[in-house]
Amino acid sequence: MRRIFLFSAMAFAPLAVAGPAAPLAKPAKLGQCVACHGEDGRSRVAGTPHLAGQDETYLVNALGAYRNGKRQAQPMNSLANTLQPRDIAALAKWYAAQGSASAARGKTPGAAKAQGASR
């Protein structure tokens, strides 16, 4: 029993000492995304997806697909063509770390308007 306790204490001790992670630096190319997707990844433009809380790997793959033309949507193709792989990685990490947009706002852009129109 004592061995289990010691093992558990040793395994979780680094978590208690480490403390919170340093804040994530804003990506250099974030300004290209902000107009449509918002700095916090919560879109204020109807029809534009929220990026906050999306899976980092998904975001890397999506931006890569816009960049290489496998995914078509203007202006995303034009903007993605200006990004280097390190920019894509930084943007994906930033937006993934922003937390879920649906939890923060509860609705997607234009949802209230659409609900009102259906009544």
The main pleated sheet reads as: none
Low-confidence stretches: 5-10, 106-119
Mean pLDDT: 79
Measured between the Cα atoms of the first and last residue, the distance is 64 Å
Which structural class should the secondary elements be placed in? mainly alpha
The ordered string of helix (H) and strand (E) elements is HHHHHHH
The number of distinct helices, counting runs of at least 4 residues, comes to 7
Beta percentage is under 5%
Helix content: 55-70%
Spatial shape: globular
Spatial extent as radius of gyration: 20 Å
The total count of strands amounts to: 0
Describe the structure concisely for a colleague.
The protein is mainly α and 119 residues long. It has 7 helices and no strands.
Structure commentary:
The chain has seven helices and no strands. 55% of the residues lie in helices and 0% in strands. The chain is an all-alpha fold and 119 residues long.
List the helices and strands and how they pair.
Blueprint (H helix, E strand, L loop, with lengths): L1 H17 L12 H7 L18 H13 L7 H5 L4 H12 L4 H5 L5 H7 L2
Helix pairs in contact: 3-5
